[in-house]
Task: structure prediction
Amino acid sequence: MARDKKNKAKMDQLKGKGKEAVGRATGNERLEAEGRADQVKGDARQAKEKAKDTFRH
Result:
């Protein structure tokens, strides 16, 4: 289960980077901001999973 959550975190980060790049290329500030938000969400999820792993072992 933890691996699924870690993969979801990575996917959020990658999705965010893609949205941000497309937003920047097209001049769409809203899409760029959504991309940054997705990256932050992925970073937070990844940090949570790493913390759980630290306390688990």
Q: What stands out?
A: The chain has two helices and no strands. The mean pLDDT is 91. The helical segments are 2-26, 29-56.
